């Protein structure tokens, strides 16, 4: 297909397996059709996964998408389908949109068969839900400048495909559910200046680095940075063909490095600390000119979350809250020991806080 269309004006977008994405190709989009369906694990499900993070586990693609975004300058698309035989609520679709958009990526909308049938039949509830989905898609498109923002964190994570970067449920996701901002650094893009704002770094698998890259990390520690490497002889579980998540036995292995990481970061503020957000994931970014800090929030429960508190490093004078289901509004930042605090009274599926 690629060869036939080579001389035409037709745009070809390939949605491949994750391990076949070519981040450095000339393709207009880096995309995959493999993804988990976002949401909080059902605690009553006997087969539900547990994770070393200890937090309520949230199925998310954000770890993989953050790595993908850091690996390419192209738009990143993910096209996972609803779970088989599922009749999903509206909130589950809003979570899927936000799960991708908070990283600057795009979810290719796909409806479950029941929703699709009701929508085509003109069912009033389905039409109302479809309009709400459109509002959220429009919300992120209206603020597409957020996609150019870069991660804002004092913690860097050095990893690549062989150390779990293409999997969901790995170290990046474990950090995310603890609401610790993180800067993904793909091994192929590790060079001088890659971690200039970081004070801490995690090198998941030292064996993947060449001599020059090892020297970069040594220079990082000589400059006062704290570096955590995988335990001696520790090897990240190998992804099984066609699979994008870890088995429980693999999660048990990850516990070795997670304990060290959790001990290193502790309760430190590495960009932002959030409170009353157990069913949420956040992503902290900064604008290209460094004048704005952008905090994306996605709520993976089916109910609004209230009384959210955010503590950010640095002094900010102005803050605005953006939501697709409500007008934007100014919120009052206040001084805290760590820098700046902001309170959010309530939010539904998604919200974005912008501070200057």
What does this structure look like?
The protein is of the alpha/beta class and 356 residues long. The protein has seven helices and 20 strands. The chain has helices spanning 62-71, 90-101, 113-120, 124-142, 171-177, 211-222, 248-265; strands at residues 15-16, 30-32, 39-40, 58-59, 76-78, 106-107, 150-151, 155-159, 183-186, 200-203, 226-229, 272-275, 280-286, 293-299, 305-313, 319-323, 326-331, 334-336, 339-347, 350-355. Strands 7-13-14-20-16-17 form a six-stranded antiparallel sheet, covered by helices on one side. Strands 1-2-5-6 form a four-stranded parallel sheet, with helices on one face. The protein has a four-stranded parallel sheet with strand order 9-8-10-11, sandwiched between helices. Strand 18 (334-336) and strand 19 form a beta hairpin. Helix 1 (62-71) packs across helix 5. The chain is globular and about 65 Å long. The chain starts with 14 loop residues before the first strand and ends with a strand.
Keywords:
globular, 6-stranded antiparallel beta sheet, 356 residues, 20 strands, 4-stranded parallel beta sheet, alpha/beta, 25% strand
Condensed summary:
With 356 residues, the protein is α/β, with parallel strands linked by helices. Helices cover 24% and strands 25% of the residues.
Q: Helix fraction?
A: 10-25%
Radius of gyration: 20 Å
- Shape type: globular
Q: What's the rounded overall pLDDT mean? A: 90
Low-pLDDT residue spans? 44-53
Order of strands, widest sheet: 7-13-14-20-16-17
Q: What composes the largest sheet?
A: 6 strands, antiparallel
The count of strands amounts to: 20
Q: CA-to-CA gap between the ends?
A: 47 Å
Structural class: alpha/beta
Encode the helix/strand succession as letters. Answer: EEEEHEHEHHEEHEEHEHEEEEEEEEE
In terms of DSSP E residues, the strand content is 25-35%
Number of helices: 7
């Amino acid at each position: 297909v690629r060869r036939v269309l080579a001389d035409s004006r037709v745009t070809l977008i390939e949605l491949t397996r994750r391990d076949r994405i070519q981040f450095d190709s000339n393709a207009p989009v880096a995309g995959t059709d493999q993804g988990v369906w976002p949401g909080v694990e059902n605690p009553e499900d006997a087969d539900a996964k547990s994770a070393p993070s200890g937090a309520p586990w949230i199925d998310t693609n954000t770890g993989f998408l953050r790595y993908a975004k850091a690996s390419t300058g192209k738009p990143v698309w993910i096209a996972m389908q609803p779970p088989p035989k599922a009749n999903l609520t509206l909130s589950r679709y809003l979570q899927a949109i936000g799960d991708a958009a908070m990283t600057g990526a795009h979810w290719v909308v796909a409806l479950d068969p029941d929703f699709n049938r009701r929508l085509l039949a003109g069912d009033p509830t389905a039409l109302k839900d479809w309009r709400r989905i459109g509002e959220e898609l429009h919300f992120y498109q209206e603020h597409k400048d957020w996609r150019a923002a870069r991660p804002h964190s004092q913690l860097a994570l050095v990893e690549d495909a062989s150390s779990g970067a293409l999997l969901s449920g790995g170290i990046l996701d474990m950090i995310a559910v603890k609401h610790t901002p993180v800067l993904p650094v793909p091994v192929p893009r590790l060079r001088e200046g890659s971690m200039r704002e970081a004070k801490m770094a995690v090198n998941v698998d030292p064996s993947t680095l060449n001599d020059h890259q090892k020297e970069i990390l040594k220079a990082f520690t000589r400059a006062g940075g704290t570096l955590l490497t995988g335990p001696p002889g520790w090897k990240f579980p190998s992804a099984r063909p066609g699979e994008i998540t870890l088995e429980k036995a693999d999660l048990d292995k990850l516990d070795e490095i997670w304990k060290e990481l959790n001990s290193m970061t502790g309760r430190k503020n590495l960009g932002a600390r959030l409170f009353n957000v157990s069913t949420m994931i956040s992503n902290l970014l900064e604008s290209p000119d460094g004048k704005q800090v952008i905090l994306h929030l996605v709520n993976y429960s089916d109910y609004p979350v209230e009384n959210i508190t955010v503590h950010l490093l640095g002094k900010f004078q102005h803050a605005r809250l953006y939501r697709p289901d409500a007008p934007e509004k100014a919120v009052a930042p206040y001084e805290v020991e760590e820098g700046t605090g902001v309170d959010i009274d309530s939010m539904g599926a998604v919200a974005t806080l912008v501070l200057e």
